[in-house]
Design goal:
Number of strands: 0
Oligomer: single chain
Radius of gyration: 21 Å
Number of helices: 16
Structural class: mainly alpha
CATH architecture: Orthogonal Bundle
């Protein structure tokens, strides 16, 4: 009898995972049926497809908060993704949920993010007719744009988690809800570290309600947040957090918006990014023949507004600057 690695994984999940976890064998499947892998579960295959996608590789050159930082230790969209993945897996492990599903969702949750972080997202949302949202674009990346515009054909559970990872979303799996919390935990804490490193805030300027409840260091804050979720969610068909920790987390988030995300300096940088993205959007919308050949093929199926958003949102920060310069900045004459 042939030894089945995947069958052993199924048996282990049945024995150890919570009754509220999504078992790998119980996935709702893919939009297009495929021959199953003999060793990997469908969620493990999804994780691998995301990691080897071009959109995932580009995350290393996309802004998290600070545009083109000079230091080596500022977060990028890729390091943020790894951070979210680690926290989501910790939550899933402690709650006996499916780590592979949580990991796949976390790795894919920001694939559709624009250059220049949320400033770029707001810029595209402002100028486009499609009302651009990065979570919806992340889903479009895995369904349409990746794999030479054939999509990755991911499972229903992973796609749901990607689409609904934002605070306003409501994933139908507990693993997806873990990723949603992990995203907030990750960006709040590493954005605090980046802002301190940049000299925008100090440790002593953090709101007292946040430090007194969550702690004074990243390690303490992350540990407190994860512990609260695990303690409140154990044996529950939901992912929840204690009211006092949520209040402290919300206070820290509001502080970051006031003192970091929407400062005069941040607004100035956002204005530059907005002008750049708006100019490129209008340029390509006016003449779609200027789009790369591969994207022009999409025009047979999708609106030009959607395709222009597809192209611009796929850009890294450096590539966006390069394209903008090639279009709008005169070259030296020699």
């Amino acid at each position: 009898m042939e030894y089945s690695i995947k069958q052993k994984i199924y048996e282990r999940e049945d024995a150890f995972l919570s009754k509220y976890a999504v078992k790998s064998k119980d996935t709702k499947g893919r939009a297009t049926k495929e021959e199953p892998c003999s060793m990997r579960t469908d969620f493990q295959r999804d994780r691998d497809r995301i990691i080897y996608s071009k959109a995932f590789i580009r995350l290393k050159n996309k802004t998290q908060v600070f545009f083109s930082p000079e230091g080596d230790h500022y977060m990028t969209r890729l390091t943020h993704t790894f951070d979210v993945c680690q926290i989501a897996r910790s939550l899933a492990r402690c709650l006996f949920l499916n780590e592979d599903l949580a990991e796949a969702i976390a790795l894919g949750h920001d694939l559709g993010h624009t250059p220049f972080g949320h400033a770029g997202e707001r810029a595209l949302n402002l100028v486009s007719q499609t009302k651009f949202q990065h979570n919806e674009q992340s889903l479009r990346v895995v369904e349409v744009l990746e794999n030479d515009f054939k999509g990755l054909n991911l499972t229903y559970e992973v796609k749901d988690g990607i689409l609904n990872h934002k605070l306003s979303g409501n994933p139908f799996t507990l693993e997806g809800k873990c990723v949603s919390f992990a995203d907030r935990i990750a960006y709040l804490n590493h954005d605090v570290e980046d802002a301190i490193r940049a000299g925008i805030i100090t440790k002593n300027s953090l709101p007292k309600i946040a430090t007194s409840v969550l702690g004074n260091s990243t390690r303490e804050r992350v540990n407190c947040l994860i512990s609260s979720i695990v303690n409140e969610s154990a044996n529950q068909n939901d992912i929840i957090i204690s009211s006092d920790v949520l209040e402290a987390m919300t206070a820290l988030r509001e502080f970051m918006f006031e003192k970091v995300y929407f400062t005069d300096f941040a607004k100035l940088q956002e204005e530059k990014a907005t002008n750049m993205i708006s100019a490129m959007y209008n340029y390509f919308l006016k003449d779609v023949s200027k789009l790369p050949t591969a994207y022009k093929k999409l025009l047979e199926t999708y609106s030009k507004e959607q395709v222009v958003c597809d192209y611009i949102s796929s850009m890294t920060d450096r590539y966006a600057v390069s394209v903008f310069r090639s279009i709008f900045v005169p070259e030296n004459f020699s």
